[in-house]
Write a structure and sequence with these properties.
alpha/beta; 8-stranded mixed beta sheet; 25 helices; about 50% helix; Dynamin_N
């Protein structure tokens, strides 16, 4: 190589791969690397073993490589191997390396030949290798074997695509010479993800197994299916050689002899074989890293800036420092208080456009849900008149009363006022639910709360008229104002939208059909006129009861109220019905008290409708805000030992450690890149070739 700066590039990427793999970020950074792709039994494993000069990869039938193997080769005077998941352990016996790969693969994928995209990182130090990093990927297959899932082909393909679609990934496309190159699995992948051929390096294996009288000269001379980076031929050990434990060094000598003695390849011998392939990959990966340094530096800097503020808090972090715990708790409560205030008052910096929440949701409860719940209490006219009748008769006892008793009015009013308790309680419950939800959202936003699992604020704090509805099979937009109701189907009809006056309109519920899940109510005219065209009533359907309630509340604000049930004396049964029909004096008394109750309850309902939101605001919402601002911190301090309260979660401790490691890895990488980029030069990419075969075949797919 002769360029010390350039020689540092591959080890640099190795260090970054290790650092980012340890925290699960390797795939996101798109580091420069070489991915080895090919079909099963294409000879990928043998090529990699020839680089190392040792048998260390699992072998067998079917899918042998079931997890990506990130193989880092490092030139070093001593020979040994290390796994990232076995830090500090050096493997000098490469049979043990194979066993560890198999065991680690089974640990994640099981023993049923399943696959996993989680890589195994293996670093091999040896005086016989050049600095090089390769990712050995599972061989492509067509048929599931044993307990493998039926879609194993698609799983392998998806895994390959995670690597080979990255712009910074070179492709080492391994294809056997004794099969049709046009149908090579590796070249099919290359055609798809690298149609310009800028990232693909071709490797032809099994040249010694071709039929007699045939050769791959046109391919190796880059005349047939040419690639810009060309093809390199290699001769691996045969299965017989592997079973017989043939020494790899002897196999390399046999490979050299094959190319020198073969009439079709002897003129190419200096550009063929495993040593030349390793040297070429070293040069091309180094140059590729050099070419991608500007983009890599930009990504590193962007990632560094994104975590710098958080890391600044961790640099001098001492988990057991009492002052840190006090400060952290104070900051959390202050931030929580600000966020809660914003969500309730509606001045938040992050506006939710998907649904109502916080103060807006509570406002809807006050002005839509609660008024409608109150109105529903007035509907049962028949039951109310019966209660008045019984009250009057029970007060008179055995005598026939001449005057309307005041006590009947008081009794009925008390019962009616008692019924208001249920909608009031429901209103309180809905507001509490929304306050708890607001607390939950605030604690999610204040990330520090997730770091301290012993703090649970929910325990302390738990104490428009436009919409869309369906009519029949069509959807309409409805717009309701105080004067009219209008609707239209789509934007084209918006200008000619239908409209009707709300005067004399009332609401009534409609029973759901046997097969319908819709909630239906209807508009009708109290003067028995058609509501719209030939329709006596206009039925409207909603998906949920909550939507129906919201619409009814909107109609009531526009002056359209639910119908009142008028009692027909003929509907009464038994002796009471007979008495009602035969006692005009009792009927007059019932009507008098009914009118008094109606007037009085109208005043009560209006008062409750006005006072209930004010009371909830004062006793619940304002008190909650005051509690958060003035008492929450003291309550948290008094609930137990501060050290226990502010004990961070194991997940947060791990995250802090990983964040610091990533920060230092990014800083180191940027420093090394800064030194190298100003002192090194690289060779240019080989000149373009006729790659129309890549383009055409890709278009045919």
């Amino acid at each position: 190589m002769g360029n010390r700066g350039m020689e540092d590039l591959i080890p640099l990427v190795n260090r970054m791969q290790d650092a980012f793999s340890a925290i699960g970020q390797n795939a996101n950074l798109d580091l420069p690397q070489i991915a080895v792709v090919g079909g099963q039994s294409a000879g990928k494993s043998s090529v990699l073993e020839n680089f190392v000069g040792k048998d260390f990869l699992p072998r067998g039938s079917g899918i042998v490589t079931r997890r990506p193997l990130v193989l880092q080769l490092i030139n070093c005077p001593t020979e040994y191997a290390e796994f990232l998941h076995c830090k500090g352990k050096k493997f000098t016996d490469f049979d043990e390396v194979r066993q560890e790969i198999e065991a680690e693969t089974d640990r994640v994928t099981g023993q049923n030949k399943g696959i996993s995209p989680v890589p195994i990182n293996l670093r091999v130090y040896s005086p016989n290798v050049l600095n090089l990093t390769l990712v050995d990927l599972p061989g492509m297959t067509k048929v599931a074997v044993g307990d493998q899932p039926a879609d194993i082909e698609h799983q392998i393909r998806d895994m390959l695509m995670q690597f080979v679609t990255k712009d910074n990934c070179l492709l080492l496309a391994v294809s056997p010479a004794n099969s049709d190159l046009a149908n090579s699995d590796a070249l099919k992948i290359a055609k798809e993800v690298d149609p310009q051929g800028l990232r693909t390096i071709g490797v032809i294996t099994k040249l010694d197994l071709m039929d007699e009288g045939t050769d791959a000269r046109d391919i190796l001379e880059n005349k047939l299916l040419p690639l810009r980076r060309g093809y390199i031929g290699v001769v691996n050990r045969s299965q017989k050689d592997i079973d017989g434990k043939k020494d790899i060094n002897a196999a390399m000598a046999a490979e050299r002899k094959f190319f020198l003695s073969h009439p079709s390849y002897r003129h190419l011998a200096d550009r063929m074989g495993t040593p030349y392939l390793q040297k070429t990959l070293n040069q091309q990966l180094t140059n590729h890293i050099r070419d991608t340094l500007p983009g890599l530096r930009a990504k590193l800097q962007s990632q560094l800036l994104s975590i710098e503020k958080e890391v600044e808090e961790y640099k001098n972090f001492r988990p057991d420092d009492p002052s840190r715990k006090t400060k952290a708790l104070l900051q959390m409560v202050q931030q929580f208080s600000v966020d809660f205030e914003k969500r309730i008052e509606g001045s938040g910096d992050q506006i939710d456009t998907d649904e109502l929440s916080g103060g807006a949701k509570i406002n809807r409860i006050f002005h839509e849900r609660f008024p409608f719940e109150l109105v529903k209490m007035e509907f049962d006219e028949k039951e109310l008149r019966k209660e008045i009748s019984y009250a009057i008769k029970n007060i008179h006892g055995i005598r026939t009363g001449l005057f309307t008793p005041d006590m009947a009015f008081e009794t009925i009013v008390k019962r009616q006022i008692g019924k208001i308790k249920e909608p009031c309680q429901k209103c309180v419950d809905m507001v509490i639910s929304e306050l708890v939800n607001t607390v939950r959202q605030c604690t999610k936003k204040v990330k520090a709360f997730t770091s301290y699992p012993h703090i649970n604020l929910k325990g302390w704090l738990t104490i428009n008229n436009i919409g869309i509805m369906k009519g029949g099979a069509k959807e309409y937009w409805f717009v309701l104002t105080a004067e009219s109701l209008s609707w239209y189907k789509d934007d084209e009809e918006k200008e000619k939208k239908y409209m009707l006056q709300v005067d004399n309109l009332k609401l009534r519920d409609v029973e759901k059909g046997f097969m319908s899940s819709k909630h239906i109510f209807a508009l009708f005219n109290t003067e028995q006129r058609n509501v719209y065209k030939d329709y006596r009533q206009l039925e409207l359907a909603c998906e949920t009861q909550e939507d129906v309630d919201g619409w009814k509340a909107s109609f009531m604000r526009a002056g359209v109220y639910p119908e009142r049930v008028v009692v027909d004396a003929g509907e009464e049964n038994g002796s009471d019905s007979f008495m009602h029909s035969m006692d005009p004096q009792l009927e007059r008394q019932v009507e008098t008290i009914r009118n008094l109750v109606d007037s009085y309850m109208g005043i009560v309902n209006k008062t409750v409708r006005d006072l209930m939101p004010k009371t909830i605001m004062h006793l619940m919402i304002s008190n909650t805000k005051e509690f958060i601002n003035a008492e929450l911190l003291a309550q948290l301090y008094s609930c137990g030992d501060q050290n226990t309260l502010m004990e961070e979660s194991a997940e947060q401790a791990q995250r802090r450690d990983e964040m610091l490691r990533m920060y230092h890895a990014l800083r180191e990488a940027l420093n090394i890149i800064g030194d190298i980029s100003t002192t090194t030069i690289s060779t240019s990419l080989p000149p373009p070739v006729d790659d129309s075969w890549l383009q055409v075949q890709r278009n045919l797919q």
